[in-house]
Please model this.
Amino acid sequence: MSAVATYAQSPASSSPSAPTAKVSGLLGFTIRLTKARFAAREGESLLYLASIVAFVISSGLALTVAGGTWMFYNRWRHPYGILLDVLAEDSSFDSLIQSYFILAIIACALLIPAVYSLTSGAAVLGARGRERRLSALRLLGLSSADVTRMSLLDTLVQATLGTALGLVAYLVTLPLWHNLTMTALPIEATEMLLPWYLIVAICIAVIVLGIASAAYGLRQVRISPLGVARRTSRPGLKTWRVVIFGVVLVIGSVAMSMLQLSAPVMFFLLAGIMLLMIGGLNVAGPWFLQQFSRLIAQIPAPSVIWAARRIQSNPKITWGRVVGIALLSLIGGYMALMPIEIGSGSDDGAATQSFIEAAQWDFTKGVIITLAVGFALTAASIFINQASAVFERAEQTVAMHKMGAPVAFNTKVMWLETLGPLVFAVIIGAGMGAFMGYPMYQLAGDMGVASDGGPIVMAVVLVAGIALAVLALSLCGPLQRRVLETQHRAND
Model:
């Protein structure tokens, strides 16, 4: 192998601490190792491709959602068509058009955790579970910093390629949005096209997020010069998490009850409150999972005990797999109590009546689009994280199989380990969303505004979320069987 390590030693450098490795050509060496992984036709080639696909989904959907927000901004600042006629009849409709842009920003903010979960999962998929190969590189003479740089270069290649493909997917799908109408106007591809500087900024953000996640994943592994890999111990979760969650709930509920959505700035305050409460849920979620798994572990069933112990050992990773569903359930629980139709008055002009008739379901369509994007991100995240777990536990799975555990045992544990926290996340997310939306529901009732579409949205959230999770887990079944058939990874 070229481009590995050359030593510059003095005559007195025979001591273990004296040699200093100077490594060049890490990029070329990384590419050669990647080619070898594909040539070996082992499981890691599938993980490599899955990681690229995850970056494609993350970047493509992030650009699409940002494009929609850009469109609403331009329609607010530069109205045309029926929007000009409506504003000519009633200038107060400017605040309604502005609310489209504000709600689009809120949707972007609510989808950030799902994008982060998928992107970080894709990076970890390419950065963890490589202890043996990383150990072999240390034995070849590479330093710990060199091994880290090689892994980050590997992630950079995956993230760049996936983001580039996501950009292509975003551009190709722009004409398809013409079939959808918002603000009583069909969506044009040129309206959804972001300026070049925003496209570059979003693509760089996705790539940087992937590299940062990979670097964090590598911090969990320490490899000695003798090739011994060990993971750092995980500290236990403290009760301060649930204290913070309680404080956030109190502050959020009080702030929600005091909001008067008569000014545009109040929508931003609403978004800030929702993000604060979502942050509190993310802080306390792993702690709740850990306590929940301790109770479940008392059930006298081997597969249940095994799954509960896995959750208890690392509740943060488990929560990361289901946080997207929890967020979508929160959105659904909140929207289930919200009036999401545009009403009309008897004294409205002709243009205003036409606008209201064409746009009365716009908010419903916006919620459905937001949830659909979240579903896609969450399903991909569940698959990526579970696929990573399958290959990380390959030795454990093979050992259990050799000890006599049937193939169905590991599959059952995998399903219980994911579906249990998933149901828990759906319940706590929907409950918290309903709790957040209840003050607004009371306010709308006092104003005589109501909607019957909320429960339908909530039902779609619950059914579709669980169905997508089941589909993602089903796709991991072949990976589990492949681990048992392979028995080892020759590339390590």
Q: What stands out?
A: Residues 239-492 form one domain. Confidence is low (pLDDT under 50) at residues 1-23, 488-492. The chain is about 75% helix and 5% strand.
